Amino acid sequence: MAPLHVLLSSALLTSCFSAVQAALPNGRAHGNAPPLPLPPVIEIPDRRVEAFRSNGADALPPYNTTYYFDQLIDHTDPSKGTFQQRYWHTWEFYEPDGPIILMTPGEANAAPYTAYLTNVTINGLIAQQEGGATIVLEHRFYGLSNPYPDLTPASLKYHTIQQAIDDLDYFANNVALPMPNGTEVGPDKAPWILIGGSYSGALTSWTMVNKPGLFWAGYASSAVVEAITDFWKYFEPIRQNMPANCSADVAAVIAHVDKTFSGSNKTAINALKDVFSLGEMTHLDDVAGALRNNLWDWQSMQTNTGPGAQFYNFCDALEVKDGEVAPAEGWGLENALTAWGTYWKEVYYADICGDSNPVDCLGTYDPNSEFYTNTEVDNASRSWFWIVCNEVGFYQDGPPKDVVDINPLVSRLVNVDTGYDPRQCQLTFKGAFPTRPLPNVQHVNTDYEGFKVNVDRLFFATGLRDPWREATMSAEGVDVASTDRQPIVESDGFHCSDLSAARGASDPTIGALQKQALASMHTWLQEWAA
């Protein structure tokens, strides 16, 4: 099973990535669809590409050299055949008996993630310290690694968490890596380390539970290990860490939106829609749901994010008036509503919707919308939504009505109780769900242990300001002790901040986390040698 490889030009890599659901200016497929839980794309500085191109006297292929592996379509029935799964690989730091470090970025076209082969990431830092080789493997049904030429429900029935776990197993045990002696470094002959961030961080934990002994060690960053249907707590770390005045005013506006839209005063309803120039939208839950966009911008923040970031611009629009900054309690509803509406109309709408009209960009009720009907491959939003609808949930919505101890930042009109997200599952995957589905999160949390995971040599890295924190091992109320065998270390970071070497160099809490992780990996790899 020798791997076939081709060298892709940087232009082709760019074109592949841009094909991934760039329907809107911000890259998302739809204006009322949340951002995917992904590790960040990290750039490789030009000098880095040239300075570390070779290992000793042996020239190495460029990082963007693409290799292919013949992966089973269905691990329960090998007779269904194989498909070509893409991967990227370098052995620039490799020394005999060193580890093989494998990562999948998860729900994305993996071509832009080649920096995770290098020491600008935690993957490469481990490889450099321990004399390891690195691999980035594209997840099935993302990018160009597809068993079938479309993303219809008939094809996607082979898109499950368990099939993805089995992919990692089959790959590790059967790949012939293009490095020297690449057929002699399987998990029975060398220690393999599995790394992931966000969903792929959870996949790291789930794989080590499901395939004990396959991977000698794991590193799970921002790992959303607990599948949660009604994931309204996505917005809690945002509420807790954003400027207090901005949080207060956003909550005031959302309370007003819920009260007005839940009433029968059509004049007031229409006037409120007009504040945001959304008067042509007839479904009030879509209007209310669209306001989540300003909060979703938090997920793109990192510890080096400064003034001028989209989220901060939004808060400045609400909280700076006549050169004066609002107190902690904000300016109040009247100013906040007017300021939010002005910012939305004059600045923000074009950023998320471009030239699209509000119904096309933000509406979720048209069954003929391209968002629902496009079944072409390399459509990460669709592939991920299949997992959302079937297995993990993570519906990012307002809290249920019985949660009364917080002032929510998101409308309660957009909620599992109102069927907002399950309805879209039916529209996206026609015929797959006769009734509005609730994902089988119990199976995920039972089979792969969720918050109850207890695995030897698995390092959990989390961030205090990560909006996905409440599905990770650092969620509030999760009482699992950090140990030397399964460390759970929280930095002041955002989503997957600790995967970046640069974030570790600039933020002392992330740097300390990475230092601890490198020490743990060194200790654990010495145990393999023993």
What does this protein structure show overall?
This protein is an alpha/beta fold and 530 residues long. The protein contains 20 helices and 15 strands. α3 (122-130) crosses α20, α5 crosses α6 and α16 crosses α17. The longest helix has 22 residues, at 508-529. It starts with a strand and ends with a helix. The model is unreliable at 1-22 (pLDDT under 50).
Number of helices: 20
Helix content: 25-40%
**Principal-axes shape call:** globular
Q: Termini distance?
A: 31 Å
> Which structural class do you get from the secondary structure elements?
alpha/beta
Low-confidence stretches: 1-22
Q: What's the rounded overall pLDDT mean? A: 92
Kindly report the spatial arrangement of strands forming the biggest sheet.
1-4-5-7-6-8-9-14-15
Strand-residue proportion? 5-15%
**Rg from alpha-carbon coordinates:** 23 Å
Please count the beta strands (DSSP E, at least 2 residues each).
Answer: 15
Main sheet summary:
9 strands, mixed
